[in-house]
Amino acid sequence: MANPLGPIDIEINAQKAALQRIQVQIRATIAGFAAMPPKERARNISEIQKSLENISRFFDKLKGSTIQNTGTRFAVENLKQSFFTVRTQWRKFELTLNVTRVG
Questions:
Q1: HEC readout, the chain
Q2: N or C: which end of the chain has fewer CB within 10 A?
Q3: pLDDT at 10
Q4: Buried/exposed 45-83: b ≥16 CB within 10 Å, e otherwise
Q5: CA dist 26 to 46, 62, 85, Å?
Q6: What is the C-alpha separation between 75 and 71, in angstroms, rounded?
Q7: Which tens digit of pLDDT belongs to each residue from 68-91?
């Protein structure tokens, strides 16, 4: 039986799963940041930033293509909104780190 999903749908699902993993990692990092050893803090921050950048590149790649399927367009928009929410949450946390270090 042929796969009913197109390549873009498969990639959207992969990015959605990656975003969910990032959300869990961000929550864990924020909750336990003070108790983490410095190397683990640095590793978590680096991993989260790389993962967010990968998803951002996916959206940049989509800018050049036209998506005809309305379901796929809807899935992309939902993923974008979720991504922006997660990215905003992460940026707010990064700002608190900068304020804590400076102050």
A1: CCCCCCHHHHHHHHHHHHHHHHHHHHHHHHHHHHHCCHHHHHHHHHHHHHHHHHHHHHHHHHHCCCCCCHHHHHHHHHHHHHHHHHHHHHHHHHHHHHHHHHC
A2: N
A3: 93
A4: beebeebbeebeebeeebeeeebeeeeeeebbeebeebb
A5: 11, 25, 12
A6: 6
A7: 889 999 999 999 999 999 999 999
